[in-house]
Amino acid sequence: MAPDSLSLDRILNEITTTNNHRRSCPSPLASGQDPLSVLDMRQNTLGVLYIMSARLNTTNAPVAPQAVVTFCQSFLTEQARLAPERVTMLARGIMRLAQQHNNMSWAVAPLYNLLRRYPPDLSYLTSFHHIFLQVCLITNQPAAALPILSVPIANISTALSDLSYNDNLMYHYLGGVVLAVLKKWAEAEEYFEICVTAPGAVPAALQLEALKKLRLVQLISRGEVLPLPKYAHAALSRILKNSIYTDLINAYPQNTERLHALLEKEKQTFSSERNLGLVTQAIDRAPRWTLKKLTSTYVTLGLGDIARVVGIQSEDEVRALILSMIETGDISAQISASGTVTFSDPPPQFTKEEVDHVLHSAQAQSALLESLDLEMSRSKEFISKALKTQDSSWAPNPEEELYAMSSAWNDDSMYS
Amino acid sequence: MDVDIPEETGQSSTRQTRKAQLVPVDDLHPFDLDSYIANYTGRTAVDRLIHIISTCHQLAPEAFQLAVQQIHQSRDPSLYQQVMSAYETVSGLSETPLPSGMDLAQLDTRWADETMAKNQAERSKLEVELKTYSNNMIKESIRMGHRDLGDFYRSVGEYPTALKHYTKSREFCTTSQHVLEMCLSVLELLIEQRNFPHLPTYVFKADAALDAASAAAANAKEGDGPAAPTPLLNKRKAVSEDRERVQSKLDFATALSNLASGNYQKAAYTFLKLGPAKDFGDWMGKLIAPGDIAIYGVLCALATLPRSALKTQILENSVFGVYVEQEPYVRELVEAYLSSNFKTVLELLNRYSSRHALDIYLAPHVTELTNMIRNWAVVLYFQPFASIKLDRMSGAFGWTVDQVEEQVVSLIQSGAIHGRVDSQNKILYAKQTDHRAELFARAIKAARDIQSTNRKVLLRMRLQQADLTVKAPKGYNSSIADLLQGD
Questions:
Q1: Are A8 and A45 within 8 A, CB to CB?
Q2: How far apart are alpha carbons B152 and B144 in whole angstroms?
Q3: A302 vs B448: CB contact, 8 Å cut-off?
Q4: Looking at A326, A344, A362, which one is the last position of a domain?
Q5: Contact call for B420 and A348, based on CB within 8 A
Q6: Does residue A382 fall inside a structural domain?
Q7: What is the mean pLDDT of residues B215-235?
Q8: Dihedral sign computed on CA atoms, order A16, A21, A24, A27
Q9: Which residues pair with B427 in a beta bridge?
Q10: Which of A347, B127, B284, B313 is 20–30 Å from A308 (CA)?
Q11: What digits encode the pLDDT tens for the residues B148-176?
Q12: Of the candidates A98, A120, A151, which is a domain's last residue?
């Protein structure tokens, strides 16, 4: 450690004493060496971070891409966390560098490493999460983001990274887009929903876009829309109500003619809002949902009848549709040679392991909630607020019991 | 003023009925206008005739003549205009030309002028009386003054003014008996005016007054002391009879308001527990006929009540039985329903659909009630079966197989029948569910949902704790915010 820290001191000294006063963007040292090559990427993480992030954000200070890659692989997290805003700068710089070299896909790997190594674990949100997703989308490598997206964000720490509300919105919006590209509808729905329901006094434009996409994703994956959680901003759904998306939702899935007419008429709007792909997919899947509804009403039905109800002209197409639905497990049915479809619905099966797994996760969840509850009732804010509402007569023992009771009741209500 | 208000009410009533389709009356749908209208007297007869004129063009000329006759017995010449306009509307709608209203019956202009003059005179007389009473500050007389004026305005068809005087009289009521009287007058007025949403308020007020009045009466009786035990008993009985009489009227008002608001089940229960016809006093005929009560009660009951309730509430209910006697087909209907003879039920309903559609209170609800009864019937019929051929069902209901299939499919989709249709072999199967597996599926789904919701809510909480909430950008115009909130 000693020689390294010595060298850092020396370099720092040299930097500050040389004539070159471009702060924290040092040019070569007196000895003609590049400070980045002198410093050890691992031991002097903080120093390198400063220099590198500064250089990446100025135009005429080149950084070797290889150095960035190595740094992202080997930096010391403890040191890096001392300068969170520099890490954000570095991430932006990496994107810029990639743009300059016209090679966006290069940025994926260093950003991924940075993202994986910087936060304590992946459930923490950082201010460069969405930069990574953006790069993934631009380079058309959505799959690269999956390891990150598979861990949902559960922790927010402003000490870890200089977050703004936009970072959260952008990350979840882009996450939803990435997952929708990968056709992982359920996950995409979740990401869009988090974006839509982000807390706020006013709705953000991005939230509205997320809501549009959320609705489309729901149509694709469920054939219907679910009500938004109560805590979503009321203005959002009100604005959406006056848009063409509501027409689309109302006509879905039965009214195929209207859907196609809507698509024809509003093609411009859909494509300018970058939703044309989702809309087309949703409309293409409309017959499936109509057909699925039939299975709960009929035991057998002729192909011709199905074609009539679903709104498809040829029986062959219907046959193909049913076959594909059977393959994907959407319905269970048999087509006889005479063109009669027999629907059946096997009761859902569960293995013992599955049940055990669910029970375990439920237990884990309740333990988590309990610890959160305890943490909350210990917190200064809570106690001072509780004191205020419970006004003057503060007698520790009975009151504490009361809190315990009320919190237990809260727990219950969460499960009910 | 004299003319404006009735015209308004007339327009609103025609607007309501114009939506209803024209009702056919022929051999398959019998309806005897003369015997029907003979049950009613006074204003309701005219109102009912107007309704008939505007819904059934076959009966319109006859009804028109009857209405004009009735008007001559009333004190409100302006009714003639309502009748006339209803008649003209319907003759404009019907394909076959109807004889002109003028030829059928003319309003006796001399009578009209006389009545107008008489009304005018009486009004000034009553108003002067009221003024003197007010000057003398005798509460009881003021109350009676208002009441008389209310009665007067009601008889000439000025409902808002009548209502104003009735409600004003309340300020001068000294005993709960008076309050009760006022409430009953208002109820009568509201029913006549077909202003159903306001009924419950006055029923409630009247209930309270009734309680107070009977308590007061009982107290007074206690005061007599035990010295005269026999008359006491008699008197108490008299009081409770009186009470029941009022109670029946109140129940009827409640039932009507339930019916009007589409709350058929409540309406059924209230209609079925109404007291005997004599309790209604002058309301019978002035507002309603016993046969109407039977029809309303039975239709609502068939549409909403389970079979056991039907049996106890209708067939074994001696008080309601009297009403049912008035309309024999109603009893047939109930009996056919209880013996699961649904074909007869539907035939009867169809046969008397005109009778129902021509009823002023029932008309807006006939279609819905009939649909409900039909759906109930199909559900009841299928209940005991695990599978049934659709052509057997079609035999039982008197429909074609396609009709049955359509009906059954719509019921399955609405969730009333748990079953599935074999469209190839025309068989309806009851759905067999593996409850254990379903329970597991539900539990596991609930667990997953709760977990993901928890996670999302916790994240939201963390965001709020870190103050990462969406904020309005600087310079965000508050008018835009208003716009967002407003639209």
A1: no
A2: 12
A3: no
A4: A344
A5: no
A6: no
A7: 54
A8: negative
A9: B389, B422
A10: A347
A11: 888 888 887 788 888 888 888 877 877 77
A12: A151
